[in-house]
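Format notes (please read before filing issues)

Several people have asked whether sequences and structure tokens are stored in separate files. They are not. Every record keeps both together, in the order shown below: the sequence lines, then the token lines. Line labels are part of the format and must not be stripped during preprocessing.
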Amino acid sequence: MQNLLHDLAELLQTDERLVTEGRLVKNKIIELALQTDADLLKMLLKNETIKAHFFTEVEDILVFDKIKFMRFVANKQFLPDSYTAYKNKVGLIKEGDYYDDYLTKRNDVVLAWPYKDTVLQGGQTKEDDRRNEVFWNEMLAPDQIDRLLYPKILTNWKKYDKDGEHKVENLTGRENLIIKGNNLLVLHCLKQRYAGKVKLIYIDPPYNTGNDSFLYNDSFNHSTWLTFMKNRLVIARELLKNDGVIFVQINENEQAYLSILLDEIFGKECYEASICVKMAHLSGPKMAHKNKNIPKVKEMIFMYSKKTEGFSLNPQYVEVSWNEAFYRYQSFIDKGKDEKDISKWKPISLRQAYSKYNLDMSNPKEILDFNIENANNIYQTALNRSKNYPKEPYNVFLSIGDKYVLNGRELVLASEKIIEIKGKKTPASIISDIWTDIGINNVFQEGGKEIS
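Then the structure lines:
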């Protein structure tokens, strides 16, 4: 047996397709055996011992026993440390660096790391319970993976409403569910009913800071985290509707690699936004090392759609003060008695308009109500460099196409930034990819229910 182990390992080393950094790659060997690769078979036939062990003669034809060969290669005595096709480093590779079509059909740069071709069993029952984790290889252990991810029976159901806790008799499918357990197993349990039906997924995974809940006892903690995320993101994508979207929140520890991983799973073309969120205040522990480090107050939320076709986003607005939205809007169109006759319009200042309509300048509500009601007359001007608008006659409004022009500049009306929010017209600002107004104090007190 030892001679066979040695002979086979030595023979396989001569095929550069099977070697990475001087070590044999078990997955590649098994993949080529499954494909009954001609070059692999020719090589095996060169050694009489190997030929006798893995080939059977049937009517003068040699038949390769690939099942026996794969079981032999999968045995821990043969390449005991070679359970993955990936190097023991995290980094970027191009398709084909290991073997074609394994990573992706796209000729693109992707992220590679140890254990990428495995499923992390994730058997921790408590967040502080470290254990040596099991990684099931996708090719070598399909049965174990199937058993791990097969839908499970969910037990200990409880129902909460305004009247307290109740025993669960049945589910209508319209309830809001909180499911406690290994989230990878939970996601696969939901797949049968919810695959292709979920409009939005938001996940807030462990950040792998060394101080959070990601306490997997593994020498490649960084790689383990990436495997943990890949396993969950793949099934999360299956749950999304074709016009669905996923948001993943993370801090800087893993955000760079997570972005590349999301590109690979969802496709770069499905990247929608990276939202920067202010998640801390400049006080307390954040300022302890201000002389050595820039205080960290931000986190990122990555946004990806499942498919580019059919996906659309409704712009969202937030209420702001008039001065925040319109501090540059200091001009007013005095339209006179005939609003439709543009030749009679006169440009005046906003303050002159207040005086003309006898407004009480000390009454903020009266001023705001007037501004909102007359937002179609309040404006600023902007230079459109792609248009050559006439500058004459001076201070005379012109209607050109769908634009109003004054002195060679386009009018931008305040009404464009007046939005109805909760039934009330108000100055508003569109929500951008920088969020600084999230209430982050005492959020741990929200809910008021202990989930056991």
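For reference, the curators noted about this record: Confidence is low (pLDDT under 50) at residues 98-105. DSSP finds twelve helices and 24 strands in the chain.
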